[in-house]
Amino acid sequence: MTKDLRINADRMLATFNQLALIGATAEGGVNRPTFSEAHLAACKWFREEVEQAGLEFRTDGAGNHSALLTFEHSNLPTLLLGSHLDSVPDGGRFDGALGVVAALEVLRTVKENEIRLKVNLEAIDFTGEEGTLVVLLGSAALSGHLSQKDLQTPRGGRENLVEGMKRAGLSDESMLSAARPKGSLAGYLELHIEQGKRLERAGINIGVVSAIVGIWSYRLSFIGRADHAGTTAMDDRRDASLGASAFTLAARELVMTKFPNCVVNVGKMDFAPGAFNIVPARVDMALEFRSPDEEEFKQLDAALLELAGHEALRFGLELKVEFLGKHSPSIMSDSIQRAYAGACNDLGLTHVPTTSGAGHDGQSLAELCPVGMIFVPSVDGASHSPREFTKWEDCVNGANVLLQAALRLATE
Ligand code: GLV
Ligand code: MN
Ligand code: MN
Q1: 174 near 166, Cβ under 8 Å?
Q2: pLDDT, the chain, mean
Q3: What atom in ligand 1 is closest to the CA of residue 96?
Q4: Res 74 pLDDT > 70
């Protein structure tokens, strides 16, 4: 009876622990930014795991790595399960890794129990989910959303992208060749840590995601004039740092007062020339904002750009605006949400609908196929940090829900 089927928790833990050693940091996290040596080592490790499990291995022009479990009709649609093996710089062990390991464990479980399904199963590790180079790189390529422009003006810098692709044996052309045809995927399922405190606070086992926020990013440059920091009068400076700082504070105020469903982040400022004794001539800032609603996005976008222009003018600066791409908010599939809820009920786990403030590969796939995600509780809500932690029991619960939801969808 497939309803009684469970993943092998000990085997999944051993696999998870092996993976956590790759790029491990002294603080207990991992450092595997996209196309770093550690990230590529994790991809190689994944390939070896897939082959050892007796599953078919596949990779594509975007460097996405997959395990395949196919049934007699090779032209069956594919139910995709997965997540990503890259991390943010000095990140945690669970973000992405848990979803890949759980997806692989689902395929191992179905294979060893010789269950025949009406879809093929594929466990995928998407290249570059964390947006270090391009927001959602591998999944955007697979879903056909990646453009030449995304590759030419990536938010992580073109030079870094080119170097990284070279290390991975990839190119612009290969990236753009990874698109899968419409209709080839029956759906995409992902297990992920929550990265927030809602589940833990409410004491609930599983969050069934109803929507994922959209993400827009810009590089804003405030441009002034370099001057002697000791001899130039305070009212005679065109100090780029003032525009950048004033904008950062005002953007926070704007979002908190007028856009309570949104968030804004200035994640990086580069000062030029960048010395104690020179008035900053230029500040380049990495700006990102997120919203669950498309209409609100447009309003926030206009308001932030107006604010940047206003602060530049106030300090006698020029403003340069470089748009670095956007991902729209994504609505998750009703039928997959129902499959997750049914699986939770069968397993005796509590569940609640929730939204995701983090970006995920499912956003790329939402126009290609039905998508659904579940979250498991993050201790203290910590994520993108070595403090990231989810109790192993919760990871196992999530993997069993993933398995049972996949079986529901694959036998319907
Ligand atoms: C990825 O985790 C993101 O939300 O930026
Ligand atoms: Mn992630
Ligand atoms: Mn992340």
Answers
A1: no
A2: 97
A3: 2
A4: no
Strand partners, 187: 79
Mutate to test the pocket of ligand 1, among 384, 385, 388 (most ligand atoms within 8 A of CB): 384
Name the residue among 194, 188, 105, 189 with its Cα closest to residue 376.
Answer: 194
Confidence of residue 22 (pLDDT cuts 50, 70, 90): very high
Rounded to the nearest angstrom, the distance between the alpha carbon of 39 and the centre of ligand 2 is 14
Query: What confidence tens digit (pLDDT) does each residue in 321-370 have?
Result: 999 989 889 999 999 999 999 999 999 999 999 999 999 999 999 999 99
Residue 4: how many other CB atoms lie within 10 Å: 7
For residue 395, give Cα distances in angstroms to 18, 80, 107, 192, 374.
Answer: 16, 19, 16, 9, 11
* Structural contact between residues 311 and 221, judged by C-beta atoms closer than 8 angstroms: no
> Which residues surround ligand 1 with Cβ inside 6 Å?
130-131, 358-359
Q: Does 407 have pLDDT greater than 70? A: yes
User: What 3-state class would DSSP assign to 20?
Assistant: helix
Q: What's the whole-model pTM score? A: 0.89
The end-to-end CA distance of the chain, in Å, is 15
- CA 177/CA 179 separation, integer angstroms: 6
> What separation in Å is there between the alpha carbon of 99 and the centre of ligand 3?
12
